[in-house]
Amino acid sequence: MLADEFLQLAGEKRKHAAQMSGLFERLYPGMKPLEFNAPPLDTLPVCDEMMRVGDVENALALALISEAIGRDIYRKLQRMAGDEGVAALFGELAAIKENAYERLLGLYNEVIGE
């Protein structure tokens, strides 16, 4: 069950990347985005800990933090977007992050026995 959840989250990350790529192509036709090797913004604050985590409880706690950060980033971008389509995409991505957060919170509570 836990492995399935993390596989689903990985699939959602790939979907987000495709949506953001499509948005970039729409906003900047003919241009290519910069290529760089960095973790996604929502994992950046907890990236080091994620690489060293040794137990399920802490892995879930870090995943919860990451999903909350991602949700908040997308909500902020939604408010800042001047284009309705862009704002709608960010709102959709924020909702997906919120849903993932709620699912992980349920798993976390099961693991810690609440």
UniProtKB/TrEMBL annotation:
It comes from the Archaea. Gene3D superfamilies: 1.20.1260.10. InterPro entries: Ferritin-like, Ferritin-like_SF. This is Rubrerythrin diiron-binding domain-containing protein. It comes from Thermococcus celericrescens.
